[in-house]
Design a protein that fits this description.
mainly alpha, three-stranded antiparallel β-sheet, 3 strands
């Protein structure tokens, strides 16, 4: 017998692309002359957009807070923020995704052509 729950589970599976952070709105920023290759706007899938350096600061702040909790001896709270909540690890992954994207030959060419304008 086929159950509705199993059908929904099969049809609603979302395929993970493996990339959570992408450079956002780069064409418009390049046309306007506002694109900064050192600090591009990052689209965090399911979260929003923010400048790359701001995301770095937020992640650094989160990690400092986790370190403070560990120094206090509150391992449970630190574990929740790092592993249980998973947001901090996800933000680090987004930073890495954008860094890898900027290192590709396609992006190196785009940045070179943008700077030559």
């Amino acid at each position: 017998m086929i159950k509705l729950k199993n059908l929904l589970k099969e049809n609603l599976d979302i395929k993970d692309s493996g990339v959570d952070g992408r450079i956002y709105n780069w064409k418009e920023e390049m046309k306007k002359g506002k694109f900064d290759p050192e600090n591009p706007t990052v689209h965090l899938l399911g979260y929003g957009t923010m400048p790359y350096k701001s995301l770095q600061k937020f992640v650094a702040s989160d990690l400092i807070n986790i370190a403070k909790e560990l120094k206090k001896g509150d391992v449970g709270k630190a574990y929740h923020h790092l592993i249980g909540n998973d947001i901090t690890v996800w933000k680090v992954k987004c930073l890495e995704d954008v860094r890898k994207e900027l290192k590709t030959s396609v992006w190196k060419r785009r940045i070179t052509m943008y700077k030559r304008r």
